Amino acid sequence: MSWTAFLLTISDSVATGVREDASGEVATEALQKLGFEVSGKAVVPDEVEQIRAALQTGIDRGVDLIITSGGTGIGPRDHTPEATAPLLERHLPGLAEAVRLLAFRETPTALLTRGLAGMSKETLIWNLPGNPRAVRQAFELAGEVLRHAIEIAHGHTQHTGENHIKEE
User: Fold this and answer.
1) How many CB atoms lie within 10 A of CB 162?
2) What is the DSSP secondary structure assignment for residue 167, as one 8-state letter?
3) 70-117, pLDDT tens digit by residue?
4) From residue 110, how far is each of 13, 23, 34, 162, 165 by CA, in Å?
5) Within a domain: residue 165?
6) Whole-Å CA distances, 82 to 51, 102, 142
7) Edge-to-edge strand ranges of the sheet holding 36-44
8) Contact 94, 29 (CB under 8 A)
9) Entry pTM
10) Which tens digits make up the pLDDT trace of 15-57?
11) Is residue 159 assigned to a domain?
12) How far is it, in rounded angstroms, from Cα 35 to Cα 33?
């Protein structure tokens, strides 16, 4: 099955061309390795209305997955969770909690990240930090879970060996 993804980088400095979008590049590579077609990318500044509008664009296009990168901290310009929350119909806290816990092992301040995950219609939205290393770690931890979640969201509820998480 082929799945589509939309990448949204939330960063004042990337939006103004001061900095490269390193986290977006990491996410693109990770998604392609998982078999997702990256059907769109956008960069917006840390403004709630612009973030929400970009998210809504992805939802309206019917993409399977929206990955956001950036704006999940506690700084005065970090608004990604506030922009995302009203769009989520079903929350998936395990994705966000797992990312925080994994990153905490190396970076205790990771516990301050406020990213969310959840479903809006049949689109899974996952807020990731803006740090490229954190994005890479998130995909290493939960990349396979994304495909499974999207299959379930699309009504493919038959639990077979190929889409179930393997037990060790």
Assistant:
1) 8
2) P
3) 999 999 999 999 999 999 999 999 999 988 988 888 888 888 999 999
4) 21, 16, 25, 32, 26
5) no
6) 9, 23, 23
7) 36-44, 3-10, 65-69, 123-128, 117-120, 90-91
8) no
9) 0.90
10) 999 999 999 999 999 999 999 999 999 999 999 999 999 999 9
11) no
12) 5
Residue 62, domain CATH: 3.40.980.10
Spatial contact of 68 and 10, defined as CB atoms under 8 Å apart: yes
Q: Which two tokens stand for residue 144?
A: 């396979």
Look at the chain and report how many structural domains it folds into. 1
How many CB atoms within 10 Å of residue 127?
A: 30
Domain-located, residue 134:
yes
In this structure, what is the dihedral angle of CA atoms 60, 61, 64, 67, given to the nearest 10 degrees?
-80
